[in-house]
Amino acid sequence: MAAPRTKNPVPEWVEVPYPHIEYSLISFPRKHILLVTINRPQYMNCLPVEATIELGALWKWYDNEPQLRCAVFTGAGEKAFCAGMDLRQRLDIINTNDIALEYPQGGFGGMSNRTGKKPILSAVNGHAHDEILLLLGCSYVQGGGFEIVLNSDVIFASPNATFRLPEVLRGVSALAGALPRCMWLFGNHRTMDLILTGRQLTVEEAKEWGLVKDIVPLEGLLERVIAYVEEIASHSPDAVIISRIAAREAWETGVSRATMRGQEIYAEAMLRSKNSAEGLAAYNERRSPKWLPSYL
Predict the structure, then answer these.
(1) 173 close to 179: Cβ distance less than 8 angstroms
(2) GO cellular component terms (predicted)?
(3) In principle, which of 48, 94, 165, 176 could form an S-S bond with 112, CB 3.0–4.6 Å?
(4) What does pTM read for this prediction?
(5) In the chain, where does DSSP find H-type helix?
(6) 244-275 confidence digits (pLDDT tens)
């Protein structure tokens, strides 16, 4: 269940009101700037499928709203930027053989495989990785947060931020765009180190690797990011859009094709495999998984 939503007034300079949003807070800290805050801190800001669908619609609205020039994406609270997919919901879908709602074209959070027109910056206020959490008697997995971060245009992070792609520990794979994006960003050996061990990447390493622009104390993180996006918003909006698209062309052509092929070849087989079900069930039951031989 989403946290209670406070409806923020839409400034008069916004031409079209934003679409209905239940799981995030929407605000406009400066003219031309959109701030989106995932509002599920009690669940470490994990996203059910419905939250991803509404974020996909929101980012499309943002791209089409003439007066908006730059956006900031963050999470409520002080512990997690985004806890990724709601594991309990995903396991229920597998166990009941229900048809899962499809993610929007932009992928998880409307962001993990988004191309879009306008820049979105991430203010990572805590963990963006995958680990078991026991909150209010429920199990949740922190997953797609790192997938969102990897496709953000610029990333600022607090000192407590950590990053991780631990899918091999869960019996699944990060097929929403993270794997080819890591290869482009970090190169072969650093990528293999991350994805084959599932280890945690510290914020200091993330800055050294070129992922994080700056590490900012948590209490000043949003202020720093909003000041930065004010600079972007002060430039020609046409020039910003065209420059961003032109720069991302090589990135998107290679990454998008690799993501599509990975999903075409492996996604359904992975999600229907006994090892995938075992990995998710083991987390829900708080035990170590008992892997079976692979027949892929």
Answers:
(1) yes
(2) mitochondrion
(3) 176
(4) 0.84
(5) 49-64, 87-96, 145-150, 178-186, 188-197, 203-208, 221-233, 237-262, 268-271, 274-284
(6) 999 998 888 888 888 888 878 877 777 778 88
